[in-house]
Amino acid sequence: MPVPPSLARLLTVLMPAMLLIPIASDMVALVLPAITREFASSTAQASWVVTGFLLACAIGIPLYGRLADRWSLQRVFIAAILAYAAGSLICALAPSLLTLVIGRVLSGFGGAAIPVLAIVAASRLLPRREVPLGVGAIAAAGGIGAALGPAIGGGLGQLLGWRALFWIMFLAALALVPALRTVLGQARPRSRARLNLIGGALLGLSTGALLFGVTQAEGVGGFTKPTSWAPLLLGAIGLSLVALRSRSAADPFVSPALFRQRGFLGAAGVIFLAMVANLSALVLIPLLIINVNGLSAGEGSLVMVPGGIALALTSVLAGRLGKAGANEGSVSIIGLALIALAMLLMSTVAGRPPLLAALAVTILGTGFALVVTLTTNAVSQLLPSELARGGIGIFQSAQFLGAGTGPALFSVLLSWRQSAPGATLNPLASVEADAYSDIFLALAAVALIAIFPALRLRRDRGRPQ
Prior knowledge:
MFS, cell membrane, Growth Hormone, Chain: A, 465 residues, transmembrane transporter activity, 18 helices, 3 domains, 79% helix
């Protein structure tokens, strides 16, 4: 019987793997103008380099938890990393924009496995008392990646060219393969039950349709455009069919029992709303300090770095709180209060010296670290083993949908607010950034609304397990 890896040994593999996704997602935004010029494409066409990656992640995330039930965790993880590497190689060599988008879709589908399987590996291979520490470290790696993404994209992209970014991702992914083979071992799969491919494909495509509809809402017309509301409608219909099939299928892809776990539903609601607030802020704050304060893209990325550092450090602390038995719902409420405070501060200081924005970003990173680490820890522990892998996939999908929904929705609201000038809701706000101020105030409200599902999680985790 193979010996499970130690916490330190497992994290030396999972943390670098976790870095790949936020870096790959965030690094491209700052080199899109260069890609647009090279392929003589429009901005809308080039934006598919970002959208294709996000859509593939949204489709793939629900699938991987169940795949790890049926096949070896090691094999699924390595196959996904190789798909990510192959997609990055295609991007590095792409002779056309279409080829580049295809490469991004492939790397997104492979990369979708990493956040799900990293949590599955931590919850399956570590002793129960060390799972919160593992989850906290994995979340910290995500925060570090979020901080490094813009710096890598802006710095290395400008120095070496945008293709060098994909060469780096290709080599980094290949370097992980032998480490994954050694650390994860050849553990037998937990289940030999038939995999419901129809249900899995329907869930993934429905999730992708919802995210596509949200991303298409940006610009003139918003959600009233057919390219936005039609995919949203199809996604909603698809999810309804998933629910119906789950009731009738002998081995449903998503067990109906999962939705009777109220603590799980509370955690999913918290992470969705927290991601809406967090990612919206991380997109809008750079726009604010570039368009209103007049900073360059490189200078703007530096304002965001303290938030990533705060998230990384707080995630480790949050993992220790989880290990000590802290109620995940209670700590999540504290984190949500900090997110709301950060957004209220941004509403007040928008348009003022960027150092104040850096302070708000630091508070935001601290609060989000508490939320993401403790809710993920709760999901990894409160579900029965037969529901854990599928539940983690659904939880990660909620997180990813929040990340896609927030920036698109609040970008539309920002455009609307800028076209309809009026007195700001915050009497302390700067006149030069009144539209941004109101949007940050709305994001504070989103964080406060998330406290309600956090209360559900707190009640559930307060019961004897």
